[in-house]
Every structure is written in C-alpha cells, then in structure tokens.
Design brief:
By secondary structure, the protein is an alpha+beta fold. The chain has helices spanning about 15-25, 25-30, 80-85, 90-100, 130-155, 160, and strands at about 5-10, 35-40, 50, 55, 65, 70-75, 105-110, 115-125. Helices cover about 35% and strands about 25% of the residues. The protein is globular, with a radius of gyration of 15 Å.
C-alpha cells in the first residue's frame, strides 16, 4: 500500500469463473460484503450500490473494464446521505468522504495451476493520507478473506468478526 493506492492479493481454492461470480452476482456479494450491485457489467454502464436498504447511484459511478473471469474495474461509490444513514456514518464523516476524489477499484483474476485463483484488488486514486484510504485499507483484507472463505467453505466470515456495519473496523465504504 502506498499513501494513495491499496493493493491486496489473495489465493483462493476456486476457479476463475467462481471468483468472477462471487464478484458480480448479487446473491454472492450480499453474503460476504452485505451489498449488491445493480448493473449489466458493460463498460460505461452505471452501477447502483444497494446496501442496508439504501440504493446509491450517480452518473460517475460506472463500470470501467469488464473481461469475464479475468478483469473487472469500476469507480467507487458516491457517499450520499441515504448511504450514510443506512450504514451508521455520521454527517461530518460522510461530508469528509464525499469531499475526497472519486476512486476506482480493479480486480485481476488469474488462474494458478489447476486448482487456485490469484485475486488481486487494486483500489487507487485516494487523497494521500486521507480518511477514505485509512478506512478502505482496513476493510479490503477482511472483505477479500470473507470472499475466499465463502468460496472455499460455503460460508462467509462471521459478521461479528468484521466489526461495525460492513467489513472492517469502520463502516464499509
């Protein structure tokens, strides 16, 4: 991790198609992340994030790259008042997050031998040393671990281990 980029890699006992499904299928994302995406995953398509009853959409919240079973990238979500109320984030913190530059996340999915997949998450564009990178740097390892655990065992990590609303010690962003 640098002061403006998070990179996290995890090896998963699953094939690339299963990892892809876990990243894009709402039935999976709700189980390990507590949210789902409304999109067709076509490059340029808008994405709505649905988390704890709040639907967050914005014209700049879009799919940037999509190659099934290999790559996926999108802009990070918009910090609306509805989102903040749903996940328990106060207005002062929400306003601070909303004032930071929009970031993007990219997933690289690579087969490793016959049984493993390497998933690399790269989240970039953060304000150096800002609050958002601090929150996300704590959330991504737990989120990726929960995805891995779900695919390998059939159950995500327990919510009480994730702390607060969503993965990580701070609210999921």
């Amino acid at each position: 991790m640098s002061d403006s980029v998070i990179t996290y890699t995890v090896y998963i006992l699953a094939d690339p198609a299963q990892v892809w499904e876990a990243l894009t299928d709402p039935a999976f994302t709700r189980r390990y992340w507590g949210l789902s995406f409304e999109t067709d995953w076509a490059v340029g398509s808008q994405m709505a994030w649905v988390e704890r009853g709040a639907r967050t959409s914005d014209p700049e919240q879009v799919v940037l790259d999509c190659v099934p079973d290999r790559r996926l990238s999108y802009t990070w979500h918009t910090f609306t008042q509805e989102w903040a109320a749903a996940v328990g984030v106060g207005e002062e913190l929400r306003a601070e997050l909303a004032g930071q530059p929009r970031t993007k996340v990219a997933y690289e999915i690579e087969p490793v031998g016959d049984a493993l997949t390497r998933l690399t998450v790269r989240h970039e564009g953060f304000e150096p040393g800002g609050t958002l990178i601090g929150m996300c740097s704590q959330a991504w390892p737990m989120l990726a671990s929960s995805l891995k655990t779900l695919l390998e065992t059939g159950a995500p990590l327990p919510e009480e281990g994730l702390g607060g609303p969503g993965p990580g010690p701070e609210p999921a962003v």
